[in-house]
Write a structure and sequence with these properties.
Chain lengths: 364, 364
Amino acid sequence: MTTHLHVKTATASYDFVIGSGLFSEAGHRLPELGVQKDAHIFIVTDDTVNQLGYAEQIRQAVREAGYDCTLASVPPGDGSKSLEMAEELYLEMLDAGVRRSGVVIAVGGGVVGDLAGFVAATYQRGVRFIQAPTTLLAHDSSIGGKVGVNLKRGKNLVGAFHQPLAVWMDVDALKSLPKREWRGGMAEVIKHGMIGDKALFERLEKSPALDVPDSSQVETLIARAASVKIRIVEQDERESNLRMVLNLGHTVGHAVEQVSHYELNHGEAVAIGIRVETEIAHEKRLVTAEERRRIIRILERHGLPVKPPAFSLESIIETLNYDKKHTGKSWTFVLPNAIGGVKIVHDVTYEDVKRAWEIAQKET
Amino acid sequence: MTTHLHVKTATASYDFVIGSGLFSEAGHRLPELGVQKDAHIFIVTDDTVNQLGYAEQIRQAVREAGYDCTLASVPPGDGSKSLEMAEELYLEMLDAGVRRSGVVIAVGGGVVGDLAGFVAATYQRGVRFIQAPTTLLAHDSSIGGKVGVNLKRGKNLVGAFHQPLAVWMDVDALKSLPKREWRGGMAEVIKHGMIGDKALFERLEKSPALDVPDSSQVETLIARAASVKIRIVEQDERESNLRMVLNLGHTVGHAVEQVSHYELNHGEAVAIGIRVETEIAHEKRLVTAEERRRIIRILERHGLPVKPPAFSLESIIETLNYDKKHTGKSWTFVLPNAIGGVKIVHDVTYEDVKRAWEIAQKET
């Protein structure tokens, strides 16, 4: 079975495809996307994913179909999302002879997708690009066209909006995902349930997906979570307003991730972010005591952390102040509003964050 | 007098404004462009232009109008169009507290416009930007949204399309332009005449603008040249086809500029490019002997070089092969077609370039 979710934004129109065996079909899929045989295909992956053979699988399929294809592999981890690594890739593309007709395929998780997408957005003022996510987390980052790299000062400070030609989510690739990675990805799935799919949330409450389920279940899970995101980015491609709701858990989450020096993975940091933001929402009576308890429990039942680590609150606040979501004297937060909804709150104060942080550290 | 030329592309709509005293009106112009008072204005200039006071003039006007404003100055010259310099500017913007509501103003020539525009296109996934060109050459580069930086391997290999909010061409700034810079800019004015304004070409044949004429004449000259470019970018924002005609003189010109290690300025290199490409056009009977003579003479009468320097042809060919305009086994060139028109020719061979290069080196 293959699920096609169509994404139509103001500037682009593409399919988010979920299924088994997609990567080995790459050679047939490219011509369907209008990629002609004289286009050079430039695959970007990381060393971990490369060893698992997914990038090679695509390369082989693409070559058999008659395309020139080059594969570049970067070290795994967020450290590769840098301008320096982007420059290395530009040079490899020049060496390979990639022209404006070329296509970049990102094979890996969010880091590879963001980096390769940024390179595609800026190489010779932009070439086409395809997302081939190999992690659950990347079901989220591969939709919506946000690409970029980090500066030492913070995450995603440099980037672009560059919509992919397609997203190929081959569920076979998820089978090799370490448990911790899977669970990190579930934080975004839960987030999508909280934002706009109450039934998905309730389903996960009943039977948590602690580890990779079988293919057809994965396909359904991803399709539902992805649909929430697609509905939102279709209405607001460039994050002017509505799209902000997707930041649930991320305002605090990004800060936690950064202050932990990425010891916590993105999903774990988001889980802590959701927890702290739920406490703010509870104080502001946007969620009931019962809803608060359900949110904490669903995260715990997916093996995700719900207590902030022993960082000083000040280090978090400092990072919040650099964060682009801070637009004035108070902060704008996206807070849970019951289950299956969110509310944008513009006047979250230092005191609000402090109280929520302390409650989250003490209670469960 | 102030001339407003309206530019309307598929994704943007803005004014190219030409006049005297524009920079000191910046404080009034920003609100008219919808820039609110909480937007941080980040001016990028280079040390040469900075010493002439233009950036300061804008900063003062903007501050008097109640905006926060920071000025950053980079070393003059093409060397500043680098990823490293872009990174320095990102960090200065973070230090200054520029958020997504901020506006970058590029005050200077093409290098500053391309660099600052690239930084604006990618800082926090894109902030608004205004071009305030201070050179004649930049009448060309400030229209059309092409921004970018160089890699060591070649010019403009990294970039984006990012349309400005406005272009402010203050003709007062041109008065301080060194003669050599003015004449370099005239190469692009002549190019625009050759592409689409025969009357402009004939006017310059009659009375060459060897040095900066008085303000009203400059205004007319720039308005006519800019109009040719605007008409073309309006129809083809992303250089898919039609916009290619603007590359007249640039295929050979870029290679010459690069092989000269930028000893030749851009306009001088373009003049040599126009000359060599005119020889190709003459061999292909696209221009008559008389038209060829007129093109060579108009360049000479503007103090521009028409003979290729003593580089080896091979160094030029090598650079052409890296150039993004080379899309297959032969090269695609834009060639003059009579006066006031061009033709895109897809099958220009090595032999064609060699013959033209040799003729241009020998004859005048």
